[in-house]
Structures are given as C-alpha cells and as structure tokens.
Design goal:
InterPro entries: Uncharacterised_pept_Zn_put. Helix content is 43%, strand content 4%. By secondary structure, it is mostly helical.
C-alpha cells in the first residue's frame, strides 16, 4: 500500500483532532500535578468569619474612597480642588502663622513667560501646561528661599479625559476635574473637564485654573496644606469647621493664582483684556446651589483672586486669619 500523502503547510487538523500521546517515560516539559485533596467543608463559624471579613473590607474601602473624594465631586458638578488626603506635605505645619504668609514683602516679581499655543489636542495642551509650570516654578521658588523653605516642583499629568486614571487621592473614580494631589505631588489636568465648549480659546482661563492648582502645591510645600488636613480630620472633613477650613484653603489658592497672573502680566505676557477675562471667570466660580460649602461663594472667589492680583503679596492672601464673612 502506498504511503499516505504528506500534508501541505496549510494543513489544519479537523475538529476533534488530538495530538498523539507521547511514548511512556518520556518527559515533555511539564510534570503532572499530584491530585489535590478535596478542600474541607467550612463550618458555620468559618462561613460567618468570611462574611464578616468581606463586610469590614467593604466598609474600609468605602471610607477610604470617601476621604479621597471629599471635595473632588461635591454637588452637581466637578470643580477644581484638592482632595483631603494625608501625606505629601512639607515645610512648617502652620496656617495663619506660616512663614510664607507672614512676611510683609513676599511678592512675585514681574516675569515674562513664553506660553506656547493652546489647543484641546492633548500633546499641544501638555506643552502649554509644561511651559506654564516652568514659569510658575521660577516665580514661586525664590519666595521659599527667602523664608528658608525648600521647594520641589510638582509633577504634571495632562490627559484627554478622566477615564482610566487612578490616583492616590481619587482611587478609581473618574468624577474629578482639574485637581492637585499632595499624596503624589501631582497636578492633574483632564482636558474634557475644563469646559472648553464654553471657554473656547480663552487660554488665560486654563492658565488661571492651572495657577490655582499650582497654588495648592505651594500650600503643600509650605506646610499649610498638611496642617489643614490634620485639622479637618480632627474636626470632621464635612463638619462646619472642616468645610470652613476647605473654603479658606481654596480661596487662598485663588489669591495665589491672582499673584501669579499679576507677575505674568507685569512681565508683558498677558494683556489687560486677558486679565479682565480671568477676573470675570473667577466671579463665576465658587459654590453653587446644592453644592457642599467647601469652595466659598462666587463673590469671595473673585474677591480673593483680585486681592492677589492687585496687591501681589502673600501676606494679603492669608485667608486663615480673615474673618468668617470673607471666606463664606
């Protein structure tokens, strides 16, 4: 009988085909596993213990996420903020008496910045914010040196949206806008959350938002933010005292934002018309109806920005020594 034809290179075994078994006592690269004994049945107490562990783990996880998102998504809309998380702070653990805001002559000197063009394209936007970050570092670092504090520039993440972004402050949640996370010293700027459909190409507003978040990094580096975190945890982050501390923190970042824009305008990088746009925008931010009272009213939001711009002194941005009516 003639030998069967050799299959061509395109030969495919038919369904049900099985490779032939190897000859006895030949090692084929894998060692058969010994049969595992059957798992013993759990008793009633063992089952209850497993259920208890699952419940406790769930409660702890929910608590951790709520803490990380304490101010990131309150109310009906996400806003710029810093989540209330521990860690990441340096400097002197003081607020009203922090050396950064007690020096009478601490000011950001006029400095030009060659901002690159703005676009909602991620790479273009990233370059824009990287340029702004370099200028912000040059503006703030000398003030820290003047009061004997160290300054380390923050990291930056610019993304198209918030999907797939996991941070030490927000966990796996995608409910956040631009924000600063002191736990990893990073500013997150998701373009989809910057209201580009409303703001259009008025890039000074995006610069202002970024300068606000950079202001939170300034607070963290000086020790202000770490002190606030400790005080809010002690008082309860959503208690009346905890929310007031949050408002003082946010409004101070507005003031620092105004200081930087004054420095940039003084250096010839921003026009008076652009500053007018930034001023108007600040009076349309703040807590809206239904929001948790953690950012301050729209009036105070704009007022603290203007104070920072007009006075350009860190001592004028000491929201922690201001009366309650100035931070409501």
């Amino acid at each position: 009988m003639a030998a069967p034809p050799v299959p061509s290179s395109g030969y495919t075994p038919q369904p049900g085909y099985r490779a032939p078994l190897p000859p006895p006592n030949v090692h084929t690269g894998s060692i058969p596993q010994a049969q595992r004994p059957a798992k013993p049945r759990r008793g009633r107490w063992g089952t209850l213990l497993v259920i208890l562990v699952v419940l406790v783990t769930g409660v702890l996880l929910r608590t951790a996420l709520n803490t990380g998102l304490d101010t990131a998504g309150s109310g009906d809309s996400v806003r710029t903020t810093y989540p209330s998380e521990p860690g990441g702070s340096t400097g002197v653990a003081e607020t009203a008496n922090n050396p950064l805001v007690t020096g009478a002559d601490l000011t950001l000197v006029p400095a030009g910045c060659k901002y690159t063009p703005w676009s909602t394209d991620v790479d273009t936007a990233r370059t824009f914010f990287e340029t702004a970050a370099a200028c912000l570092e040059k503006a703030w670092q000398p003030l820290f040196a003047d009061v004997g504090l160290t300054f380390e520039a923050p990291k930056l993440v610019v993304s198209e949206d918030t999907s797939g972004i996991t941070t030490l402050c927000t966990g796996n949640s995608s409910n956040f806008a631009a924000f600063y996370c002191s736990a990893d010293k990073t500013i997150y700027m998701p373009i989809s959350q910057l209201q580009t459909d409303l703001i259009k190409d008025n890039w000074v507003v995006y610069l202002s938002v970024f300068a606000h978040e950079y202001g939170h990094h300034v607070q963290a580096q000086s020790g202000i933010l770490g002190k606030v975190h400790a005080q809010r945890r002690e008082a309860g982050t959503r208690s009346a005292t905890g929310l007031e501390l949050s408002r003082r923190t946010e409004l101070q970042a507005n003031c620092f934002d105004g200081m930087y824009l004054a420095s940039s305008a003084g250096g010839g990088s921003l026009t008076s018309a652009q500053i007018g746009v930034a001023r108007s925008d600040m009076y349309h931010r703040g807590d809206s109806s239904g929001d948790m009272r953690d950012h301050g009213s729209s009036q105070n939001s704009g007022a603290w920005f203007e104070l920072g711009y007009d006075k350009n002194r860190t001592s004028q941005c000491n929201t922690f020594s201001a009366s309650a009516s100035k931070v409501n």
